[in-house]
Amino acid sequence: FSSRANSEVVLDVCVQMGYRHFDTAAAHGTEEAVGKGLKKGFVDGLVKREEVFVTYKFHLLDAGEVRSAVEKSLSALQLEYLDLCLVQSPSKLLKSCTYPPNQRESASLPSSVQEIWEALEDCVQSGLTKAMGVCNFSAKNVKEILESASVVPAVNQVELHPMWQQKQLREFCQSVGVRVSSWRPLGGQPPLSVLNNSVIKEIAETHGKTPNQIALRWLLENGVISVIQSYDPEKLLEYINLFDFKFSVEDLEKLASLDQDLPFYVV
Ligand SMILES: NC(=O)c1ccc[n+]([C@@H]2O[C@H](COP(=O)([O-])OP(=O)(O)OC[C@H]3O[C@@H](n4cnc5c(N)ncnc54)[C@H](OP(=O)(O)O)[C@@H]3O)[C@@H](O)[C@H]2O)c1
């Protein structure tokens, strides 16, 4: 979810459709709306707390600020614990910077991911979050964490879609027990998205599906968790309608050989 006025209503629709993973971030400013929507789902008996999975992301802070950031998000979300807490980037941002940051701002401060990681480990031990992970970390960044961590990152959330498959990073993460999650699973907004890729369009037509569904099914079959954003109930329904078709060997070969030239953010 990002910041739009109707997040609360959309969240209610999602819960009713069967969505159970909600991904939010301090930078999106949507924790309050997500919290209200979830509370409504709990009160109406649609869903129980233990049946939903809530992810929260924050940019690198000073280690001493981590716990209060997690507590602040829990209070906005009206929850007692998070399921997953992610460090949003290996780069530290200037406190005054705008979001999304420009290159100069994001590279401008030295950071110690290890110290942040220790502070997050304390949050896991205190029960504020069940798991912890990272976003936009390269294999090198993940290795640095593993050198001193007592908790292995549960997840690395990165840009990943059929036109930016990140095969080596996926293989590395799998080899060290880190699950990969995809942001921008549709390749972003048109005209950049999978909607305009002729190979994906052709495979979609063969199966009577949309290019978006082909991208999401491809991620699913590769063991990647998708984090998708929409405020449109029709699209939300399209995005979970993925289980009534199968790729042929030829489809998979065509998808594996797509040009890899559309990253928005290179890890
Ligand atoms: N961890 C990180 O560092 C990080 C960074 C960036 C983003 N994220 C997360 O990733 C999630 C998804 O990112 P994203 O929105 O950039 O990428 P995306 O999921 O690949 O693209 C979704 C966008 O495509 C549009 N779209 C889909 N089908 C369309 C169609 N048929 N015609 C026109 N437009 C269509 C959607 O519009 P509608 O809104 O109209 O449905 C939506 O804006 C976000 O929730 C965000 O929280 C994480």
TrEMBL record:
Q: What's the domain of life for this entry?
A: Eukaryota
Which InterPro entries does the record associate with it? Answer: AKR (IPR020471), Aldo/ket_reductase_CS (IPR018170), NAD(P)_OxRdtase_dom_sf (IPR036812), NADP_OxRdtase_dom (IPR023210)
| Molecular-function GO terms, alphabetical | aldose reductase (NADPH) activity
Record domain NADP-dependent oxidoreductase: where: 4-259
Q: What residues does the record give for site: Lowers pKa of active site Tyr?
A: 57
Q: Which Pfam families match?
A: Aldo_ket_red
* GO (cellular component) term, any one: cytosol
Protein name from the UniProt record: NADP-dependent oxidoreductase domain-containing protein
Q: Which organism is it from?
A: Selaginella moellendorffii
